[in-house]
Structures are given as structure tokens and as C-alpha cells.
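User: quick one
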Amino acid sequence: MNIGIAGAGLCGRLLAWQLLRAGHRVTLFERDGSGAQSAGFIAAAMLAPFSEAVAGSADILTPGLQALQDWPAWLAQLARDSGCAVPFGCEGSVVVAHGSDRAELHWFYRRLQGMAAPAAGDCRLLDGPALRQLEPGLGAFTQGLWLPGEGWLDNRALYQALDGAIVALGGQWRQGHTVSAVTPAGLVTDGATLPFERVLDCRGFGARDQLANFRGVRGEVLRVYTPEVQLRRPVRLMHPRYQLYVVPRPAGIYVIGATEIESESLAPVTVRSCLELLSALYTVHPGFAEAQVLEARAHCRPAFADHLPHIIQRGALLQVNGLYRHGYLLAPAVVNSVLSLLAGGEVLAPVQHEVADGPNLTCQRPPARPRGIKP
Amino acid sequence: MSDTWHAYGVELHSRFLLGTALYPSPHIMQQAVQASGAEVVTVSLRRQSPASGGGNRIWECIRELNLRLLPNTAGCHSAAEAITLAKMSREIFDTHWIKLEVIGDDYNLQPDAFELVAAARDLVADGFAVFPYCTDDLVLCQRLLDVGCEVLMPWGAPIGTGQGLINPYALETLRARLPDVPLIVDAGLGVPSHAAAAMELGCSAVLLNTAVARAADPVAMARGFRAGVEAGRHAWLAGAMPRRQTAAPSTPVLGTPFWQQGQAHD
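Assistant: Done. Structure below.
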């Protein structure tokens, strides 16, 4: 099939690669050319099914655990297709809380124990010595929770590897084209409709005007560099107000995230958010005080009202969206669902499948009410 | 039997007010609010940069519930800050109701009594219906009434702690001394029995958020609190028996031979 994909963030790139592998012709439209404007590029790319199931919905635990199996296989294939190895870790993650917030840790643990998945039973509370044995850098804490199997991947290396694989497999890039609309008949860019047999809309937050019950949830993420702190595993700090995760990258780089604000503002990171993230970071390890702040970026997570990914089918068009804060964790389920639908099959949990009637793609949302005007 | 109450002239049937933050998703928030039977829900402007259109989407989810909105001034530390946010809220949510929060201590989020009274005075003068989040101090509550508040929202415990009523004596005092003022216990409740306890003391209603939103199943917890509020209300209306030190049998012992009673105590 001749397939056009609008949006080359995590979802668009992965789908392009997988569809090329399946023998389709693929044209991928991206507004910049590096993926640097996509939410998946900024993200910490944690693979944390336990933590995310506790923080959000238990529906994502099983598919998230499956993703921990799927990613290594994908990355091995990708290395063959692109010649690039993507750094990946799956040595578990650690949840910590300071002494006065210990109740948060126990709450987290109880919530895990209440989950149906047997794997949740492998999560263990660690005392100070056991915690330091696992992660010597966490000497500030006397208790922690170990979540075996959780991991991370280097998302920017992944983007690069996918670029290489897509080119190597004969995919067509259309870079620097802003897609203004996506219809079952094709993609509208620069005022012209380009026809395809199948059209995939993977624009994430950029597709918001074409989706109902959809919103952006602002997130702010920092990247810092320090050779002073050695953490092998993602660390999540539980605090009643300031929650934080620290995700290691190769060569002393850490991704620090993330705020979660009900706003669709794409403005730069605020001072308040920096203060919250960095003061929490400093309490994880004082060595972060001298870390260099490499980057502070904000984006909007694309979310439906149930916070689950949706595939909306309108004839030849599939709108694939709503990965929210679980892009890397749920990408395998989403990508495999699209492949399955294109082959006449069903979606995989927890992906929600909607079949919409008619090609009408006008915005179904009431226009925002101007401030000061009463309804 | 009709058992309604009034806040600023509005007749309300439900005595359970619910917050709309911290839920796993907007979808679950909507279901939990529906399960709670609440007629009033709180909503926050803070940190959503309304000037740039932030927050609109989540507020649509809240407006879809078609309930009375009670915007709050969460996160404000001075009267001036709270007044500004209250005015913005009035414009955005089209209501003159405001839950006034002015925080005086960042650790336990305790209200700043002095700034609270100052902000309440100005807001009442500006036509707001002020629902002040206050401590359970009788004199503070009296001052809030003096500046024109018609409803009081004393805390059960600090926000988000889930401790339940840490000072039932103070709440009983408020009820006894201010018998005609609607008292909404706000903050600090963790489980439905805490809500029942507040209602048993004669409080008019309870307001909470975290205990429902952060439950493993928020919709079920909303149902639980709804039942707790109703149970406590029934108890208050019914009039509770006195607490006693000495046991008194519920089955009459009249006619029981003395030697049997004696045996029972051996």
C-alpha cells in the first residue's frame, strides 16, 4: 500500500519504519527535519509500567510489561536496519522518599501490591544498606522501593536510528512541510492535497483541532550533565507536592521530569517549575548542585479524556493519538494495533478503537470562549 | 423528608462537595463526581496560565458536568494575590462564588488568618460570595462572619493529609456557638468515616478532593464518601445517645434472677 504519515514524532517514525519493513510504500511528513519539536524527543523515555500504573491507570500495567519485552527485540532489529545501537537499560528502577514523606512510599507499595499482575509481587521495599548496594548514589535515603525490570531508552539516539532505518528501507521524507489538515483522501500541505491509499495522522498535540475530547497537558523537562553523580537506574522521588524522576543517559547526562500542568501553553519553562524540579533534584543527590543545565524544554502531552491511546478510523484515514505520558511504554501496543488494523485485525489493549462515520473532520469541539464574555 | 441546606441563598441537597484535581484522568474525574452526587465542585485556576488560554480543555470537562462551580484560590500566600485570582476566576467561570484560600505556612498549608480576613473583607465588598478555608479557631471564624462571610470552611486537618478530624472539640464548639452558620469541613479527610464523624458533629457539609482522587478506585471511593456523609447526617438528625462509662444492657434484665446477674459478673 502507498501510505502517507503526517507527523514524525515517536509514533510516526516507528510506524514508518514498521510499515516499510512490512513492505509498504511510506511517505513521512515532518515540519522540521529532526523530530526536535515532538513531545517524544523531549521526553525522558522511561519504560516504567509499575510506576505509571500507580500514577495513572492500572490498564497500562500489562501492555507496559509487554513493552519491556518488545523494545529489546525492536532495538535489535533497528540496529540491523540502521547500523545504530540505541542505548537501553532495564535494570529496574528505584522509588525513594525522604524520611518525613515515607508514607508516600508505603502508599506506592500498597498500591502496587493491590494490582492483579503477578509481576507486581516482585517489587520490594529496600532498607538503607540494600538500597545503597543497588544504587550507591542514593545515600540520602534510608528506604526505597525497587521495581525490577523497569527501564529507559535513549530517545534521541532512537530518533536518529529510525531516521537511518527509514532511509535505508526506501521511505520518503518530506521535511519542512507543515501538514495543515489530514483527510481520508490525503494530506493537505502547502495548499495541495496529496493522495494516498492510507493516511496516518500521528501529529500528537499538533492534531488537536481535528480531535474531540482531546487536550494537551503541559510538561516541562530538564537535561543536566554531571560527572559527580552515578545513577544507573531511573529514580523516582515521591513527595506530597513535588514529584520528580531522574532518568540516566550515557556519559553523565540525566533527564529530569516532569511537571504536569493543565495548560496547552507551549511557552518556555517557567521559573517556578525550574525551582520545583531542581530543588527536588538537589535533595536526591547533592552532587547535582554543580550539574550543568543543558536544556529546559516544555511541550504538551497529547491526551484523550481517558488518558489512553486511541485510533480513530475514518475510511482510509487512521488518527493515531493520545499517548499522553506513556509514549515509549505504549508505543509497541499502538504500533502493533495500527499494523493489525491495516491487516484487517483488531487493536491491542489498552488502545481504544473508534470507527467514525463520514469524512467530516471539522473540529468537534466548541470554540474556546473568549475571556470576559459570558455564555 | 426534605433535608436541604443553603449557601448564599442557594438551596443544596447534597452535603458532599468534591474537588476536580488529581484524578487519574478527566474521564475518571467525571465519573467520580457523578457517583458522589455532588452539586458543587471546586476548580482551580492556579498555574494554568489562563491568560494564554491554558486550562480551557480541562474546564470544559468540568463544565460538562453541569454543576455549580466553586473556584478556589489555592496556592495564594497573600490577600492581594488571592483577590487577583478571585477576580480572574469570576470572569472565567462566570460565578461570584469563591473558595478563599490564603496559605500562611508552606509546610502544612495552614491558612493565614490575618490575610484571610483582609481578603474576605475586600471580596465581600466587591460582591463575592466568599467560602473561606480557615482553621477551626472560633475567634477567626467570628471575624470572618463579621466581615460578611455567610459560610465557613474550617479544616478537619491540613490539606491532603487524610488525618481526619484532628480537633473534634473545636468543631463541636463552632457548631454550638455558631448554630445558624453553614459549616463545611474542608480538607484533611481520608476515609468515609471521617466524613461521617464531621457530619455527626452537626457540620452542614464536607468538601474533599485528595481522598477520592488518589484512591485506587476513585469512583468507588466517591460512592463510599457519599454514603459516609449521608450516614453522619442521619445520625446528627436522629440525635445520638450519650456516651457512658457503665455498660447498660440492650436487652431488659427485669425478671432475671439475682443469682444469674451475679454469675455474669464473676
